[in-house]
Amino acid sequence: MPIGKITPQRLADTIVEQLETMILEGTLNPGARLPPERTLAEQFGVSRPSLREAVQRLAAKGLLISRQGGGHYVTENLGASFSDPLIELLEQHPEARRDLLEFRRTLESDCAYYAAQRATEADRARLTETHEALQACYADDSGRNVEAEGEADAHFHLAIAEASHNAVLLHTVRNLFRMLQRSMVTNIDGMNASEIENRDGLRQQHRLLFNAIMEGRAEDARSLAGTHIQYVQRVLSERSETRRRQERESRRELLSRGRSGEARFDPGGSPTDRSR
């Protein structure tokens, strides 16, 4: 068989591959600024012209951008698949909110499973930090802040995705982060999580999930993540049904009042037709 010549890889190609890997694995986050050219060239052990060529090629691919005042940044909306108008549309429809919870059950269960298997010491430190911040929200009785609680909840689940060391799972969660955060705020508010039972339930579920990941119990972590979403689905469904019954009862009361008011008595005591 004929043997083709091996073309030596250009240094810029190697730098491109290295930077792409750092973006893909989440070492370089969307919006992150690259170190100064001189520093980065020293870290890679390459010449500045080779580094400059690699950066230009990544910029041409849309992975990096240059900003006024100097510096190169990872594209902010890298891989964004849900625009703001679509987020608003999803939030306005109950069926779509249900679909999002179903999607989260699948996504977050897998994230938790792999995080329990693959989390590094740095991941565990980040998980501990975000979990403590979330638990602090539950413990704060001075005045419940739904927005802060939703943000803390979303950051905890993002830390789990980062610990999964699965590039597709990580970037899916990152790209949907704003929608997930707003969904969590909506869910917390809809669950009326200030009720002691619901609040304690959420606190305990997150603690159990955190412990399972930290202890490397992958199957337990997957099950607990799914159970958490099922709990949210059940409580929201129950509250929605309660609200529908209350609205139905209100309509019946209004109708009953209207019927009883079809004939009324005038001050003199004689019946008077309301239509007159």
What is the strand and helix layout of this fold?
Elements: H1 11-24, H2 37-44, H3 48-60, E1 64-66, E2 72-74, H4 84-92, H5 94-118, H6 121-139, H7 146-164, H8 167-175, H9 177-191, H10 196-214, H11 218-260, E3 263-265, E4 271-273
Antiparallel strand pairs: 1-2, 3-4
| Quantity of strands, as a count | 4
Instruction: Estimate what percentage of residues fall within beta strands.
Output: under 5%
The termini sit apart by 105 Å
Strand order of the largest sheet: 1-2
Structural class, please?
A: mainly alpha
Question: What level of helicity do the residues show?
Answer: 55-70%
Question: What do you see in this structure?
Answer:
- This protein is mainly α and 276 residues long.
- It has helices at residues 11-24, 37-44, 48-60, 84-92, 94-118, 121-139, 146-164, 167-175, 177-191, 196-214, 218-260; strands spanning 64-66, 72-74, 263-265, 271-273.
- Strand 1 and strand 2 (72-74) form a beta hairpin.
- Mean pLDDT is 79; it is low at 263-276.
